[in-house]
Design a protein that fits this description.
Largest sheet of chain A: 6 strands, mixed
Largest interface: A-B, 22 and 28 residues
Distance between the termini of chain B: 36 Å
Shape of chain A: globular
Helix content of chain A: under 10%
Number of helices of chain A: 0
Mean pLDDT of chain B: 92
Low-confidence stretches of chain B: none
Helix content of chain B: under 10%
Radius of gyration of chain B: 13 Å
Radius of gyration of chain A: 13 Å
Strand content of chain A: over 45%
Shape of chain B: globular
Number of strands of chain A: 11
Oligomer: heterodimer
Mean pLDDT of chain A: 93
Structural class of chain A: mainly beta
Distance between the termini of chain A: 41 Å
Order of helices and strands of chain B: EEEEEEEEEEE
């Protein structure tokens, strides 16, 4: 059964820092990996989706990489801002029409 | 605006009183699913639907029912709610059953079962 782990569970940084969030998964036979953002009291917003054949995806200050063979993905956030404060979730799709989520990294960016 | 709409957003009710949480999407998506989110356990899938009249169990289906009579709607039914179903519930949809496209989530429904 697929398991997804996110490290660290929480992270606090000053504004302007570059940071890396980590996601690992136990079964490398995945179709894609998706990074979400969740704000308090809100649903999930899709940030980036990486297909299994891709190595990375970029959107603005966000860059996500995927190393399928080692079961790892990283989300890089450049020049962090207080508005980036949220919980970031990683999810993998391994088939059978279900996503497996990690428990998230709670990020706080202080001014 | 493309969106997934859940109702109600908040509900406090009592054990055994049947309730339905509605979910509607306006993107003509084939695939819809329900998740529950609990502290320390993360998001877990309850049920999913690949298309009209096609539904299947996720990881935690016990105590829940769903139906998919129309493409846009996917209600979650708790026939006899119990306190262990107190949770934050999310409905999601994506364009196709292969699910190689991003999932869109609703804003969530917070259920408290007393």
């Amino acid at each position: 059964k697929q398991e997804v782990t996110q490290i660290p569970a929480a992270l606090s940084v000053p504004e302007g820092e570059n940071l890396v969030l980590n996601c690992s998964f136990t079964d490398s036979a995945i179709y894609n990996l998706q990074w979400f953002r969740q704000d308090p009291g809100k649903g999930l917003t899709s940030l980036l989706l990486i297909q299994s054949s891709q190595r990375e995806q970029t959107s603005g200050r966000l860059n996500a990489s995927l190393d399928k063979s080692s079961g790892r993905s990283t989300l890089y956030i450049a020049a962090s801002q207080p508005g980036d404060s949220a919980t970031y979730l990683c999810a993998v799709y391994s088939g059978y029409s279900t996503l497996t989520f990690g428990k998230g990294t709670m990020l706080l960016v202080s001014p | 605006e493309a969106q997934v709409t859940q109702n109600p957003r908040y509900l406090i009710t009592v054990t055994g009183k049947k309730l339905t949480v509605t979910c509607s999407q306006n993107m003509n998506h084939e695939y819809m699913s329900w998740y529950r989110q609990d502290p320390g356990l993360g998001l877990r899938q309850i049920y999913y639907s690949m298309n009209v009249e096609v539904t299947d169990k996720g990881d935690v289906p016990e105590g829940y029912k769903v139906s998919r009579k129309e493409k846009r709607n996917f209600p979650l039914i708790l026939e006899s709610p119990s306190p262990n179903q107190t949770s934050l519930y999310f409905c999601a949809s994506s364009i196709d059953r292969v699910n190689n496209q991003p999932q869109h989530f609703g804003d969530g429904t917070r259920l408290s079962i007393l």
